[in-house]
Specification:
309 residues, alpha+beta, five-stranded mixed β-sheet, three-stranded antiparallel β-sheet
Length: 309
């Protein structure tokens, strides 16, 4: 399969939308919000961190059903000396109506032999049992959440293969982004198209000095109010973008009050960019119509300077 996310998105995303199209999009989003519980259960499982899965280091063979299905493990060079990414599940399928390109990542501990190649310091760090246990726990939690997200995603695709109408495209990829000696960040990308398309991005960050998975609140001094300044800055950026481009639209003062963005969540999706700034990410439909896609906001350092650790 040669199509990537951007190519697939271009097949359904049109920037020039009439007022009628925008109103139709809003009506569709209102219906989607009413059905949000089912959508999250079937596709994204956004907050289902209810189980811990041990790292799997062997090939898994599952039945091949009317398509090319392969489960493989491929290693990527050691990241941040301690964390390694392998492909836990590789599912490929294509016919005249359906296409799937799915590579589910899994985090594992790098072996001590591999860390020796990096440096003696890395080996010494790996022998810190308390830190190593925290790191294992963090990776297990992340792996469990990734499987909760991608499992139903794949199963729904396979279930829909029985129908002889319509089409569907799904794509699951991951990439390691903006990782330093201190932070490891994995980005999980999930895309689904069936008549129209939608994309969800997830970011997982581990503090390599402590082995702990970082939540947004962990970046600030204890008790600090980070939600108010971040939310305020995002609203400013939204208004500036809408003033500069009439095709940009966010739900800030919409007639449907429940749609309007008021504040980020405590467990808001984020990552840290190469300049150390916090980047807040919203999936399609969270704060804007679906045609806007996944939207991100880089929070300037000065906005949070007084409360960042």
């Amino acid at each position: 399969m040669n199509k990537n996310i951007e190519e697939l998105k271009r097949e359904y995303m049109k920037k020039e939308m009439s007022n009628e199209q925008i109103n139709a999009m809003k009506a569709a989003m209102e219906k989607a919000k009413k059905d949000q519980a089912r959508s999250r259960k079937v596709i994204v499982y956004r907050r289902c961190i209810t189980a811990a899965a041990a790292a799997v280091l062997a090939f898994i063979i599952l039945p091949n059903t009317s398509g090319n299905v392969a489960y493989a493990m491929s290693r990527i060079p050691v990241i941040g000396k301690l964390v390694e990414v392998v492909t836990f599940r590789d599912y490929q399928y294509e016919d005249e109506r359906n296409r799937a390109d799915i590579q589910v990542p899994e985090l594992v501990m790098a072996t001590k032999e591999e860390m020796i190649k990096e440096s003696e310091e890395a080996l010494e760090e790996a022998t810190n049992e308390a830190m190593e246990e925290k790191l294992k726990k963090s990776m297990e939690e992340i792996n469990a959440e990734i499987k909760e997200i991608t499992g139903p995603f794949i199963e729904e695709f396979k279930e829909n293969l029985q129908y002889e109408w319509g089409y569907q495209d799904i794509l699951v990829k991951s990439e390691v982004i903006n990782t330093t000696d201190k932070y490891f960040t994995l980005k999980l990308i999930c895309y689904m198209a069936s008549g129209s398309g939608a994309e969800w991005n997830y970011y997982y960050t581990i503090d390599l000095e402590t082995g702990e998975r970082l939540l947004l609140k962990d970046l600030f001094v204890d008790g600090a109010d980070y939600i108010t300044p971040i939310s305020g800055n995002i609203k400013e950026q939204m208004r500036e973008q809408m003033a500069a481009d009439e095709m940009v639209y966010y739900w800030l003062e919409d007639e449907i009050e429940d749609w309007n963005f008021k504040a980020i969540q405590e467990d808001q999706t984020f990552y840290i960019d190469e300049n150390g700034n916090i980047v807040i990410s919203f999936n399609e439909g969270d704060v804007a119509p679906m045609y806007m896609g996944v939207v991100t906001f880089t929070i300037p350092g000065e906005v949070l300077a007084d409360i960042r650790k």
